[in-house]
Structures are given as structure tokens and as C-alpha cells.
TrEMBL record:
Organism the protein comes from: Hungatella hominis
UniProt domain 4Fe-4S ferredoxin-type: residue ranges: 215-247, 298-327
InterPro entries assigned to the protein according to its UniProt record, in alphabetical order: 4Fe4S_Fe-S-bd, 4Fe4S_Fe_S_CS, Sulphite_reductase_A
Listed PROSITE patterns: 4FE4S_FER_1, 4FE4S_FER_2
Name of the protein in its database record: Anaerobic sulfite reductase subunit AsrA
Encoding gene (name): asrA
SUPFAM superfamilies: alpha-helical ferredoxin
Length: 344
């Protein structure tokens, strides 16, 4: 059922929803951007519709609500440990279509990878209801249409932000009582149909080509350009890697807490192992790993979609102006070159 409500009416609905839900949405933090006089847009709890930043793309994705950059897993003493507590409320999260697709990828990694369920992710994921933010134009670094993530029907409510009013498509009956007596409308969300940026993901025809691609000189370019800062993966809608650290509270080393923190395959030392072994020693090696993971390995493993949802946040965040879209194009050229060489 479609509705049209003023911001004032929406804020009353938000207030009523907050008995049961935490409401999360992209929010602008003025002056907190990485350069002087720039803002940062990231997910935060909101109380009113005016707090939602819907005009610009958020710098960081919706995944941060479910898997924050850092979180406590459990607290320990000499002889016991206590699990950290999750929020007692349900989570109502405003997301764009690409973030909804990204959440499905996260579910695969956290909940069905090798038969293992991550209980910390699961306990948050079970609470989620989605409000899809209509996205009809995208930005210059988006390539969601190429990745098939520009549309989604998987939402409880969809919303369009107008001048002082919201148009909503309410599909989930749990939310219908909040809209009783409100103006009805025939609203249905529209979607981006064309991005400025397009990416054609190449097929890797066989293992021989894949092996040659891994050793192709194209990756050497990144030894100079990529500074291995990891900013691209922290901002990525679909990256899930983390590391754990024990924080010791005082001189008694048996009392403290275990935290998990986002990790990056782009940072030197990520693949270090006991005995001093390391698999990916150069920035080029690490770039190859990331790009193949997003545009080949994940799909090969789960047999459905590529992992990248085309949100373009990694392109926006990279201080070295490295574009994953351009890298995929270079990879396609390298594959063509390898296949042509094989067919000679
Ligand atoms: S690789 Fe880049 S474009 Fe793809 S999902 Fe991650 S941040 Fe978005
Ligand atoms: S690609 Fe860019 S953002 Fe990612 S690690 Fe390299 S320099 Fe940092």
C-alpha cells in the first residue's frame, strides 16, 4: 500500500516506531570528512527524517550497522567469559538497493560459508527490517546497473524523499498500523536505469587462463600506485574480513575483553602466518587478490552473483585515485591478450 506523509507526520511515526526499533540511516557529520572543511556521511541512529542524508551517497555502507568497524565479542576473567550483549530492539535500516544486495552477500559469508554461522552477525541480522531509499540517478562512481544491483524488491518499506514529504510503499503488514488514516498514494519506487560508469566483467574461460592472469604484469602497476592503506576495503559494501584482539584491562593478563576489528586484505601483513610466511607480499599481489575475489572467486564459490555490487565507494575513498572499474577493464584486456596468445 502506498502513502504520502509530511515530515511532521513521519517524525511522529518514527517516534512511535522507536518503542520497538532502533532506526538507522545515513547521517551527515559536518566537518568530519577526511579533508578540511569536508563532511562525512555514515550510518547512525536517527530520530527524525531531517537527520537522514538522502541527497548524497554515504561514504561508508549500511554493513556497519550489523558488523561495526570494531565490536566487543566477549569479556573474560580467569575462569569465565560473558558474551557481549546485542541491542534488545529490532533494527529498521534505510538502505539503497546496492546496500540491500550487499547485505545478501554478507549473509552468505557470515551465515553459510563452510557450514559455519557467525552468531554475532546472526543475532543482529535477525532483527533487520529494510526501508529502501529510492535511488534513480546514482553518482559518477556508481556502476550498479552493470552489476545488476540497481533494483531490489526485498524491503519492508520503500521511500522517496520529496519537498517536506515522504512517499512510501509499505509492503510489510507489521508497519501498516503506523499509517492508519494517512493519505494513500500509488507510490512505487523507481530505479537507476543507466550509470555514467559501466563495467563489463570478463569471463575467465579456464584455470590455465586464470593462472596466467594471476602472473600477468598488469598487477605490477599497483606496486607503485597503491599505498596499501586499506581505505577501499573499509568503505566496501561487501568486504567482511576482520581480526581479533584481546584487550587486557590491568596488570592481570587474564581479565579483559576480546574485540573484533575490520581488517583489510590490502594492508601489508594481512596474510602473514606463523613462522614468518606471507602469501601476498606486494601491493600488486594484494590488488590481484581483491579484484579476483570480487569479480571471480566469490561467484565461483557460491555459484550466483559477483561479490561487487558496484557502489563505487572504493573509488571515492582511494587516495591514489585507483578505480576498481578501470582495473576490471585492464583485467579484461589482459584476459583477451592471454586467450589470443593461446589461440596462436
Ligand atoms: S569493490 Fe568497490 S564498488 Fe564493489 S562493492 Fe566494494 S566498494 Fe563497492
Ligand atoms: S587501492 Fe587505494 S584505497 Fe585501496 S589500499 Fe590501495 S591506495 Fe588504499
Amino acid at each position: 500500500m502506498g502513502y504520502k506523509v509530511s515530515f511532521e507526520e513521519a517524525n511522529k511515526i518514527f517516534a512511535a516506531l522507536q518503542d520497538e526499533y532502533e532506526i538507522w540511516a545515513p547521517k551527515r557529520f559536518v566537518g568530519k570528512g577526511r579533508y578540511s572543511d569536508t563532511d562525512m556521511i555514515k550510518y547512525d541512529k536517527i530520530n527524525t527524517v531531517e537527520e537522514i542524508e538522502y541527497m548524497d551517497k554515504s561514504d561508508f555502507p549500511a554493513k556497519e550497522v550489523l558488523s561495526p568497524i570494531t565490536e566487543s565479542l566477549f569479556y573474560f576473567t580467569e575462569d569465565e567469559y560473558i558474551e557481549s550483549k546485542a541491542t534488545g530492539k529490532k533494527l529498521l535500516i534505510f538502505m539503497r538497493p546496492c546496500d540491500i544486495h550487499a547485505q545478501h552477500h554478507q549473509e552468505k559469508i557470515y551465515l553459510s560459508n563452510g557450514g559455519f554461522e557467525d552468531m554475532y552477525y546472526k543475532r543482529m541480522n535477525e532483527k533487520v527490517k529494510i526501508v529502501m531509499m529510492e535511488c534513480t540517478t546514482g553518482w559518477d562512481t556508481c556502476f550498479c546497473v552493470s552489476m545488476g544491483t540497481n533494483k531490489s524488491e526485498d524491503y519492508s518499506m520503500a521511500v522517496r524523499f520529496g519537498e517536506g514529504e515522504l512517499s512510501l510503499d509499505v509492503k510489510d503488514g507489521a508497519f501498516a498500523p503506523y499509517f492508519e488514516g494517512k493519505n494513500e498514494s500509488g507510490f512505487k519506487p523507481e530505479y537507476v536505469e543507466k550509470n555514467q560508469l559501466t563495467v563489463e566483467v570478463p569471463e575467465i574461460p579456464n584455470k590455465e587462463v586464470l593462472t596466467k592472469l594471476k602472473n600477468h604484469p598488469m598487477w605490477n602497476e599497483y606496486n607503485k600506485r597503491c599505498i596499501s592503506c586499506g581505505a577501499c576495503t573499509v568503505a566496501c559494501s561487501t568486504c567482511t574480513c576482520f581480526t581479533t584482539t584481546d584487550i587486557i584491562y590491568n596488570e592481570n593478563a587474564n581479565v579483559g575483553e576480546r574485540k573484533r576489528t575490520t581488517a583489510s586484505c590490502q594492508v601489508k601483513g594481512f596474510s602473514d602466518m606463523a613462522g614468518g610466511m606471507s602469501f601476498r607480499n606486494t601491493a600488486g599481489d594484494r590488488m590481484r587478490f581483491k579484484v579476483l575475489h570480487k569479480f571471480h572467486d566469490y561467484k565461483e564459490r557460491f555459484q550466483d552473483y559477483h561479490m561487487c555490487v558496484g557502489c563505487g565507494r572504493c573509488i571515492d575513498r582511494c587516495p591514489e585515485y585507483i578505480s576498481i572499474a578501470a582495473t576490471v577493464k585492464k583485467m579484461a584486456n589482459a584476459i583477451d591478450e592471454i586467450v589470443a596468445e593461446e589461440n596462436k
